[in-house]
């Protein structure tokens, strides 16, 4: 059974930093691209970043470029999101999601999400 | 503002059929890239419902169907049931000079009357 479990969320002050983790199991993590998607309270889904299986290809949404960094450790079956210079508008539930069906395909498995609250 | 446009809400009575549209531009689903649909029940993570425009994921009832034509895609739910009440999102890929992005529609809230 595929499982994606996010951790690391919490309350952080504006300008602060936080690192999210996503532990993957039940599939060949090192073979597939991974994504982070966030959802602000009461709002829709916003894709924020993608990393290829080898980490050679990385994309970011314009809204987070320069502040958020995606990375992965295939030996640990883990995905990460380093968030710096956090703003109020970064408050959201952050989901990790896999793309195992085909390249640039659907986000087929999702974690349960990790809530990040940016507030003073 | 989302790259893909969905109606904010739709509603229908049990047993009825509803359609949720998803309209994109020339750089995403209008360029021929696949459209995928997700269902998000209240308080839960999104779940992939349909991918590749019209392929249901395992366990999804055949009451759910998807289609795409030109710059538009649609999700049709037939024989509406109370448990279908959820938010639905379409998703495609957007290839621009800066690379490839995943793009979502703004979401459609389905209310079962």
pLDDT < 50 stretches of chain A: none
Task: Report the structural category of chain B.
Answer: mainly beta
Say how many strands of chain B there are: 10
Poorly predicted spans of chain B: none
Helix amount of chain A: under 10%
Q: Name the biggest interface.
A: A-B, 23 and 27 residues
Quick one: how many beta strands of chain A? 11
Which structural class best describes the helix and strand composition of chain A?
mainly beta
One letter per element, helices H and strands E, the order of chain B comes to EEEEEEEEEE
Using only C-alpha atoms, the radius of gyration of chain B works out to 14 Å
- Can you give the mean pLDDT of chain A? 96
Please summarize the sheet with the most strands of chain A. 7 strands, mixed
Rg calculated over all Cα atoms of chain A: 13 Å
Supply the key terms.
heterodimer, A: 120 residues, mainly beta, 7-stranded mixed sheet, 4-stranded antiparallel sheet, 50% strand, globular, B: 113 residues, 3-stranded antiparallel sheet, 10 strands
What would you note in describing this structure?
The complex is a heterodimer of chains A (120) and B (113). Chain A has strands at residues 3-7, 10-12, 18-25, 33-39, 45-51, 58-60, 68-73, 78-83, 92-99, 109-110, 114-118. Chain A is mainly beta and 120 residues long. Chain A starts with a strand and ends with a strand. In chain A, 38% of the residues are buried. The mean pLDDT of chain A is 96. In chain B, strands 1, 3, 4, 5, 8, 9 and 10 form a 7-stranded mixed sheet that branches. In chain B, a hairpin with a 6-residue loop joins strand 3 (36-40) and strand 4. The radius of gyration of chain B is 14 Å and the shape is globular. In chain B, 38% of the residues are buried. Chain A binds chain B through residues 35, 37, 44-47, 50, 57, 59, 61-62, 95, 101, 104-113, and chain B through 2, 33-34, 36, 38, 40, 45-48, 51-52, 57, 87, 89, 91, 93, 98-107.
């Amino acid at each position: 059974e595929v499982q994606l479990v996010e951790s690391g969320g919490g309350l952080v002050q504006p300008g602060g930093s936080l690192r999210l983790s996503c532990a993957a199991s039940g599939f060949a993590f090192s073979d597939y691209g991974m994504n982070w998607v966030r959802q602000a309270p009461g709002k829709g889904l916003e894709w924020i970043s993608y990393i290829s299986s080898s980490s050679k290809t990385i994309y970011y949404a314009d809204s987070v470029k320069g502040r958020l960094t995606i990375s992965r450790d295939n030996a640990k079956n883990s995905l990460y999101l380093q968030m710096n210079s956090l703003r109020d508008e970064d408050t959201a539930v952050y989901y990790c999601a896999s793309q195992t069906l085909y390249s640039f395909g659907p986000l087929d498995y999702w974690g349960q999400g990790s809530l990040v609250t940016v507030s003073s | 503002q989302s790259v893909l446009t969905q109606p904010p809400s739709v509603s229908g009575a049990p047993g009825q059929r509803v359609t949720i549209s998803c309209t994109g531009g020339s750089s995403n689903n209008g360029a021929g890239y696949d459209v995928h649909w997700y269902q998000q029940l209240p308080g839960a993570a999104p779940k992939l419902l349909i991918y590749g425009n019209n392929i249901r994921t395992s366990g999804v009832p055949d009451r759910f169907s998807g289609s795409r034509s030109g710059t538009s895609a649609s999700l049709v739910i037939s024989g509406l049931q109370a448990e279908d009440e959820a938010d639905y999102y379409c998703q495609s890929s957007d290839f621009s000079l800066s690379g490839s992005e995943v793009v979502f529609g703004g979401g459609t809230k389905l209310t079962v009357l």
